[in-house]
Amino acid sequence: MDYDEQLDRALDESPDIEGSGDRFDVPDPEVRQEGNATVYENFQSTVKRLDRREDHVLKFLQSELGTSGHIDESGRVRLTGEFNQRRVQDALDEYVEEFVRCSECGSCSVRVNSASRRLA
């Protein structure tokens, strides 16, 4: 069997890989209006997926959305004002670009150690 036949055979037997190739997916924010507040229902699953502290993510959201907010007893975030899903998603995307995704390699598994200011 020559090289071309072996290559064809390998390609035929290898599984097709589907998807965008980006293995890091943040859950879409589930938000709903409750009076004059926006409730971010799945905040805890988002923070867990980001592998970041909830107070850091909340502080960023507050700054990015220009509002105040707090984490309630159920772990949901209550933001003062009305924000649609797209606006919260945009803020999360900014957070990922600034604090989660490495600007050098694009990886999302890199951590910055603030004590030593080195990549971990």
Instruction: Give a quick account of the main beta sheet: strands, pairing sense, barrel closure.
Output: 4 strands, antiparallel
Q: In the residues, how many domains can be counted?
A: 1
Radius of gyration equals: 20 Å
Structural class: alpha+beta
Distance between the termini: 47 Å
Mean pLDDT: 85
Strand order of the largest sheet: 1-2-4-3
Residue fraction in strands:
15-25%
Total DSSP helices: 4
Which range best describes the helical content: under 10%, 10-25%, 25-40%, 40-55%, 55-70% or over 70%? 25-40%
Low-confidence stretches: none
Shape: elongated
Q: What does this protein look like?
A:
- The protein has 120 residues and is an alpha+beta fold.
- It has a single domain (31-119), classed as Alpha-Beta Plaits (2-Layer Sandwich), CATH 3.30.70.3150.
- The protein contains four helices and six strands, in the order H-E-E-H-H-E-E-H-E-E.
Brief summary:
With 120 residues, the chain is of the alpha+beta class.
Task: Note the topology.
Blueprint: H1 3-13, E1 31-34, E2 37-40, H2 43-50, H3 54-65, E3 69-71, E4 77-80, H4 85-100, E5 112-113, E6 118-119
Antiparallel strand pairs: 1-2, 2-4, 3-4, 5-6
Helix pairs in contact: 3-4
Properties at a glance:
elongated; four-stranded antiparallel β-sheet; single chain; alpha+beta; two-stranded antiparallel ribbon; 120 residues; 16% strand; Alpha-Beta Plaits
